[in-house]
Structures are given as C-alpha cells and as structure tokens.
Amino acid sequence: MKIYTKSGDEGDTHLIGKKVKKSNERVEAYGTVDELNSLIGVTLTSIPDGCEDMKEDLQKIQHELFDLGADLANVTTRENYYIQNEFTIYLENRIDYYWEEAPPLEQFILPGGHTAAAYLHQCRTVARRAERRIVDISEEVQTPAEAIVYMNRLSDYFFAAARAVNVRTDLEDIPYRSNRK
Amino acid sequence: MKIYTKSGDEGDTHLIGKKVKKSNERVEAYGTVDELNSLIGVTLTSIPDGCEDMKEDLQKIQHELFDLGADLANVTTRENYYIQNEFTIYLENRIDYYWEEAPPLEQFILPGGHTAAAYLHQCRTVARRAERRIVDISEEVQTPAEAIVYMNRLSDYFFAAARAVNVRTDLEDIPYRSNRK
Amino acid sequence: MKIYTKSGDEGDTHLIGKKVKKSNERVEAYGTVDELNSLIGVTLTSIPDGCEDMKEDLQKIQHELFDLGADLANVTTRENYYIQNEFTIYLENRIDYYWEEAPPLEQFILPGGHTAAAYLHQCRTVARRAERRIVDISEEVQTPAEAIVYMNRLSDYFFAAARAVNVRTDLEDIPYRSNRK
Ligand code: B12
Ligand code: B12
Ligand code: B12
Ligand SMILES: C[C@H]1O[C@@H](n2cnc3c(N)ncnc32)[C@H](O)[C@@H]1O
Ligand SMILES: C[C@H]1O[C@@H](n2cnc3c(N)ncnc32)[C@H](O)[C@@H]1O
Ligand SMILES: C[C@H]1O[C@@H](n2cnc3c(N)ncnc32)[C@H](O)[C@@H]1O
Ligand SMILES: [Mg+2]
Ligand SMILES: [Mg+2]
Ligand SMILES: [Mg+2]
Question: Which residue, among C110, C69, C64, C51, has the nearest Cα to C91 in the 3D structure?
Fold first, then answer.
C-alpha cells in the first residue's frame, strides 16, 4: 500500500470515527503533540553520556504521546482511554529525581547550556503549546481529563531534565536579570 | 536600502496588492511556510554522506516553498500561479523511490534515529501545521487548489525520506507500542 | 518548594494579577516568546568561532525576552514597562553592523548555510510568529507599543546575523529563483 492515499487532497481528513476538515481543532491538538514527539526525536540525538536514564524516559514519553494522540483523535464516546494516571505519576517521580540534582531556584534561567539542555527547553515550550491546544478542545469535545494533567507535568519534566543535563555536564544556568533600571 | 523599513511597526504589513494586519490569516499561512523553509535549512546541515540525492530534493523544495509563498501572498485575482502540479508529481516519484528502500510498515514509528531523520520528522510535522494554515484560508480567499495537494504530499515525502536515512545509516525505526494493558 | 504546583491541572493558570484559561491569548503570546527564547538557546550552541559579538547579542536578547514576557503577562494598568526603546535602538545598530558585512541583496535567499545561520533563520521565522501573536492581543488588551516595534526589528536582526555568519564562514547564500517557466 502506498503511503500517500491522496484522500486529504481536498483539505479533509479522518479522525477515528469521523470525517473532518484539516482545520478541525482536534487535528490541531494531536498534530501539535506529533510536533512535540518529533522534537523529542531530535533531542534524543543530543543526550550526552551519563544521561542514559533520560534517554529511557524520553523514549517512554514518545510512546505515551502516541497513546495521547489516539485519545485525542477518538470521537467515539468511551471511557477506557489509553492515557493513564500512572504516566503522570512516573513523570512526577522523575521530576523529583532530577530536581534534587540542581541547586534551588528563585529566578528564571536563560534556556540553553548544553545542546541537550537547550533542546529540552525547546521541548518544554512546545509541550506548553500542545497543552494550550488540548485546553482549547477540552471545553468543547470529550477528552480525557488526564491529558491536561499529563501535559502540565510534562513541561515541568523537561525543565527539571534540562537543569540536570547542565549540572551533569558542569554548565551553569544563567539567571535572568531584568534590564529595568 | 536598509532592510528594516519600520513600515510594520504599527502591526500592519503588505501582501502583494493589499495592506493588512499582521494577524491576517494569509500572513499566518505564508509565515508558517517560511518557518518550514527555515527548518529545511537546518535539516540540510545534517544530511549524511550517501544522501546527496536528498540534499538536491530539499533545495528544490526550498525554491518551491517561495513559489508557494508568493501565491499565498497574492490577492490579485489570477490563474497563473507559480505552484505547478509537476512539483507534486516530482514528490510522488521521490516518495516511491525512498519508500522502496525501507521495510513495509504497519504501525507508527517513533520519530527519530539519525539526526537528519529526526529533523525530517520535525519537517513533516511543521509541513502539516503549514497545511492546516493553508486549509484555514482556502475556504475564504482565492488560493491555488494545488497548494493543499502539494503540502499533503510534502509531509509524506518527509516521512519516506526520514525512513530512507535510517535505512542507509543502519538505524532501525522503533515501532510504537501502546502502553495499554 | 516543588516546581510542579498542580495548580494548572484543570487548564487554568495565572497572569500577573488575574486567573485565566491557558487558552488565553496573552498566554499564547508570551508562551510563543518563551518558545523563541528556547530556540535562541539552541542557536547559541552552534555559533562558530569568530562570532563572539553575536553570542553576546543573543544572550542580551534572551534577557530582554523575559522583560517582554513580564510585560505581556501583566494585566494591571501601568506605564512603566520593562521593555524599553533602547532595546530596539541597540538592535538597529547591530543590524547595520552585520548588514555591511554581506553583499547587497535584491532577491530572497534560501534559509540555511552554516548551522548557526540556519538556526538564526529559524529564529527569524519564530520571532515573526511571536510578533503575530503579540499583534493579536494588542488591539484588545493594553500592551506596550514598543513590543511590536521590538519584535519587528528582532526578525530583521536574525536575518542580518544569519547572513553575517555565512559571510564569516565563507558560505554563499543561494538566491531564490522562481520555477516559473
Ligand atoms: C490519528 C492518526 C494519526 C495521528 C495521531 C496518532 C496517534 N496515535 O498519536 C498522527 C498525527 C501522529 C498520525 C501520523 C501519521 N499518520 Co496517521 N492516522 C491516524 C488515524 C486517523 C488513527 C490512528 C490511530 O491513532 N489509531 C489508534 C491506534 C493506537 O490503534 P491501531 O488501530 O492499532 O492503529 C494503528 C494503525 O492505524 C497503524 N497503521 C496501520 N498501517 C499503517 C501504515 C503506516 C504507513 C503507518 C504510519 C501507520 C499504520 O498504526 C497504528 C498504531 O501502530 C489513522 C486512520 C484511521 N482512522 O485509522 C491514520 C493513518 C494510520 N495514518 C496514516 C499516515 C500515512 C500517517 C503519517 C505517515 C502521515 C505523515 N506524512 O506524517 C504519520 C506517521 C507518523 C509516524 N511517526 O509513524 C495512514 C496510513 C496509510 C497506510 N496504510 O499506508 C492512515 C491509515 C490514514 C490514511 N488513510 O491515510 N496519524
Ligand atoms: C510575501 C513576502 C514575503 C514572504 C513570502 C515570500 C515568498 N515568495 O515566499 C516571506 C515571509 C518569505 C518574506 C520574507 C522576508 N521578507 Co518579504 N516580502 C514579501 C512581499 C509582500 C512580496 C514578495 C513576493 O513574494 N513577491 C513575488 C516574487 C516571487 O516576485 P518578485 O517581484 O520577483 O519578488 C522579489 C522581490 O520582492 C525581492 N526583493 C527585492 N528586494 C529585496 C530585498 C531584500 C532584502 C529581500 C530579502 C528581498 C528582495 O525578492 C523577491 C524574489 O527574489 C514583499 C513586498 C512587496 N509587496 O513586494 C516583501 C519584501 C520583499 N520583503 C522584505 C523583507 C525585509 C523580508 C525579510 C528579510 C523579513 C524578515 N526579517 O524575515 C524576509 C527575507 C526572507 C529570505 N529568506 O530572503 C522587504 C525587503 C526590503 C528591502 N528592499 O530591503 C519587502 C520589500 C517588504 C518591505 N517593504 O519591507 N517576504
Ligand atoms: C509570566 C510567567 C512566566 C512566563 C513569562 C515570564 C517572563 N517574564 O517572560 C514564562 C512562560 C516564561 C514562564 C516560564 C516558566 N515558569 Co513561570 N511564571 C510567570 C508568572 C505568572 C509571572 C512571573 C513574572 O514574569 N514576573 C515578573 C518578574 C519579572 O518579576 P519577579 O517578581 O521578580 O519574578 C520572578 C519570580 O517570579 C521568579 N521566581 C521565583 N521563584 C521561582 C521559582 C522557579 C522554579 C522559577 C522558574 C522562577 C521563580 O522568577 C522571576 C524573575 O526572576 C509567575 C506567577 C506569578 N504570578 O508570579 C509564574 C511562575 C514564576 N512560573 C513558574 C514556573 C514553574 C515556570 C516554568 C518552570 C514552567 C515550565 N515548566 O516551563 C518556566 C521556567 C522558565 C525559565 N526559563 O526559567 C512558577 C514557579 C513555581 C516555584 N516557585 O517553584 C510560578 C510561581 C507559577 C506557579 N505558581 O506555578 N513563566
Ligand atoms: C509559569 C507560568 O506560565 C504560564 N503558563 C502556564 N501554562 C502555560 C502554557 N501551556 N503555555 C504558556 N504559558 C503557560 C502561566 O502564566 C504560569 O504562571
Ligand atoms: C494520519 C492522520 O493524520 C491526520 N492529519 C491529516 N492531515 C493532517 C495535518 N495537516 N495536520 C495534522 N494531522 C493531520 C489525519 O487524522 C490522518 O488520518
Ligand atoms: C516581508 C513580508 O513578510 C510579511 N510579514 C511581515 N510581518 C510578518 C510576520 N510577523 N509574520 C509573517 N510574515 C510577515 C509581509 O508580507 C512583509 O511584506
Ligand atoms: Mg505548569
Ligand atoms: Mg496526508
Ligand atoms: Mg519587518
């Protein structure tokens, strides 16, 4: 079977259970989740030695984002969603674990440092964009409540992981200082 | 002539033939095409040896995206668009060509692998975002029908190309497995 | 204090002075500024030797984007914004400075070349996306007029800087040529 089916050539496409315009807000939501997933793929190419734990996390998250995508694409009324509260609990444990490695924080930090840290910050901001797109649809169509909780935690995961990479590679985060006189 | 004309400092700008707000949906559409074009520029820096064919494709596509951008910016009624059906046909041939190199697929794959493959997946998702922005305007203003067809095929091109890079660099794509118990 | 406060788990969040939905347009605007900031972090990892001047610029800009973010998040009526006209003037000086290094231009150029140049083009397009999101809100809520001026100039800064990187690393920008017959 060819990968290009041409069925989308008039601007329509398929959810699981319904034909819609490609400008449909559900398509926007899981399309943004897909964008985040691909950015994690880029990030994975930059994770340094000594961060094998993080590589495993990121791959686990990639699978979970497909689970989430399937839930967001599904318009048939149902309760047995793919996304599970356990995914969130796992993230929380990992946040605590990485957070302990870095010094306490009372200011914003400039996103960057090691290449992997820089990409993790970019993941953080794209995760937040995806979260906004999920919040957009959550008031209008049936979506798993866990989706927003998971995405909220995921951006904090990326923040904690970015800081841990810089600590482990001996790079210091630069605190933001206001230019205000 | 200076590059900064300051003419956009109040939030207005120019299409070809009309003054509009920068929040205009056409500006959103070609601005997103421009974002994709710049990501292809990043991708080009990572294409490995043995993929010279792909480098040529990507540069050809960069030119075509400017052609597309000019069509999307043009509000004067016309039929002689820059974008041509031949661009799409070329993409289809290249999809077939790369697709043959990779094993058949019956599941989603985690975006990633070689750095170039990872970027190509990111291009794929940004191309789909650009497609959504073109669909947004296509119902309201005159746009070439070929624009949506081309963008639809372009995201499949990136998918096929990403897989070919991983095959050629001996990296295996990881199939998605649902976490559902 | 834990970084994850869970207060956003129902899709709400806080501006400075007000509780809003995460889909609020102000959140979209500073969230996109944050996305740009993180991309500058990525770009900084690729700046070649001989461009220390640009590294300093980019870090200065990162601080300024937090200043801008604070202004966009602030709903309390006020006039003493963080963002200052001097930030724009600095950018204009730097544009002139980099612009002189590159040959005059009368066509579009393909975004790319050196990795840093490619990322700077990506910054350019994401800055323009952020500009559009700021224009979106500027008609409805009180925002500093300087915000749009600054963002308008910032995308020209990235364009000039990208060209300077390619000149300094002996890479020629490829001019766009229309495919039109
Ligand atoms: C929603 C959706 C998406 C979403 C979200 C999916 C998610 N879970 O996150 C996103 C945006 C990620 C997506 C992307 C793509 N998709 Co899609 N997608 C769908 C859709 C509508 C539902 C799939 C789903 O989530 N099912 C729920 C899952 C979890 O249950 P499942 O039944 O086990 O689903 C499996 C099969 O659908 C399947 N599969 C079967 N055959 C093939 C063949 C190919 C080539 C692929 C990639 C997958 C695939 O993979 C799923 C899980 O492993 C289907 C059409 C449909 N109504 O079924 C198309 C569909 C599977 N997608 C398709 C395509 C082409 C793609 C892309 C290659 C498009 C592109 N150019 O980017 C990418 C591939 C991404 C990747 N990394 O592999 C085609 C496959 C055509 C074919 N048989 O060759 C389909 C059938 C749509 C169509 N008719 O054109 N997709
Ligand atoms: C639509 C548009 C865009 C779009 C889409 C264009 C597309 N085809 O995809 C996008 C978003 C890509 C874009 C980007 C930019 N643009 Co523009 N764009 C336009 C606009 C409105 C139409 C151009 C067009 O597509 N014409 C159709 C083409 C195909 O036909 P053409 O007549 O042969 O067009 C050529 C000239 O316009 C030209 N050109 C002539 N002089 C100059 C000077 C410079 C510095 C550049 C970059 C191009 C340029 O390049 C075109 C093709 O080679 C013009 C204003 C206008 N109304 O003409 C501005 C305009 C050409 N853009 C301008 C600028 C500054 C830029 C950016 C540098 C902005 C930025 N900071 O990102 C970038 C450069 C991108 C690049 N890679 O080179 C300025 C150039 C000012 C100058 N003379 O120095 C113009 C004149 C607008 C203005 N008054 O400020 N642009
Ligand atoms: C707007 C805002 C943002 C915006 C824009 C900010 C900007 N200036 O560009 C953006 C989107 C960038 C942002 C990002 C983040 N934010 Co924020 N943000 C806010 C908010 C609403 C206002 C902050 C502000 O701009 N104040 C104006 C500044 C300039 O004045 P200030 O009083 O001196 O502000 C300082 C403190 O707020 C502070 N700070 C104090 N304690 C902590 C702790 C942490 C962990 C951090 C990161 C910052 C921080 O940093 C500011 C400047 O240095 C506050 C909540 C509130 N209402 O105060 C949350 C808040 C500071 N953010 C928070 C968090 C968690 C984050 C992120 C880690 C979220 C994420 N996962 O991405 C990132 C970190 C980004 C980074 N690089 O460091 C939390 C901190 C919780 C804590 N005490 O541990 C807060 C308190 C919100 C909350 N209740 O959850 N944020
Ligand atoms: C740290 C701050 O970031 C903002 N915030 C919370 N969620 C998002 C999101 N998805 N996107 C952008 N900004 C967000 C809120 O203002 C919060 O207080
Ligand atoms: C593979 C699946 O991706 C979805 N799809 C089709 N076009 C787009 C797009 N531009 N952006 C995001 N998702 C899209 C449809 O649901 C299709 O079936
Ligand atoms: C160079 C051309 O880019 C367009 N333009 C101006 N500002 C933006 C923006 N924020 N985003 C996308 N396109 C923009 C206008 O059409 C201008 O003429
Ligand atoms: Mg949060
Ligand atoms: Mg398609
Ligand atoms: Mg401008």
Answer: C64
Task: Indicate the helix (H) or strand (E) that contains A97.
Answer: helix A85-99
Residues with CB in 5 Å of ion ligand 8 = A 8; B 152
- Distance, CA of B160 to CA of C124 (rounded, Å): 28
**C180, B67: Cβ pair inside 8 Å?**
yes
The count of CB pairs under 8 A between chains A and C is 103
Q: How many angstroms separate the CA atoms of A59 and B62, rounded?
A: 31
**CB–CB of C165/C114 below 8 Å?**
yes
Mark yes or no for CB contact B153/A4 under 8 Å: yes
Distance of CA C39 from the midpoint of ligand 1 (Å): 29
**Contact: A113, C37; criterion CB under 8 Å:** no
pLDDT (tens place) for every residue of chain B, 181 residues total: 789 999 999 999 999 989 999 999 999 999 999 999 999 999 999 999 999 999 999 999 999 999 999 999 999 877 789 999 999 999 999 999 999 999 999 999 999 999 999 999 999 999 999 999 999 999 888 899 999 999 999 999 999 999 999 999 999 999 999 987 5
Q: Are B178 and A80 in contact (CB under 8 A)?
A: no
Any CB–CB contact under 8 A between C55 and chain B? no
Q: Return all residues near A123 (Cβ < 8 A) that are at least 6 apart.
A: A36, A39, A40, A43, A158
CB contact, 8 Å: C172 with chain B? Answer: no
ipTM above 0.85, yes or no: yes
The total number of residues shown for chain B amounts to 181
The interaxial angle of helices A85-99 and A52-73, nearest 10 deg, is: 150
Using a CB–CB cutoff of 8 Å, tell me whether B67 touches chain C. Answer: yes
Q: CA–CA separation, A127 vs A148, rounded Å?
A: 11
Distance CA A130, CA A154 (A): 11
Dist CA C110 CA C92 (whole Å): 23
Residues in chain A: 181
Rounded to 5 degrees, φ, ψ at C102 are -105, 150
Per-residue pLDDT tens over the stretch C113-144: 999 999 999 999 999 999 999 999 998 888 99
| Contact criterion met (CB < 8 Å) for B41 and C178 | no
Kindly report the nearest CA distance between residue C1 and chain B, in angstroms. 32
Q: H or E stretch including B21? A: strand B18-21
- Which domains are assigned to chain C? 19-74+83-103+113-171 (1.20.1200.10)
Please tell me the distance from the alpha carbon of residue A141 to that of residue B174, in angstroms, as a whole number: 32
Is the separation of the CB atoms in A151 and A109 below 8 Å?
Answer: no
Contact A63, B110 (CB under 8 A): yes
Q: Who among A4, A38, A64 is closest to B179 (CB)?
A: A64
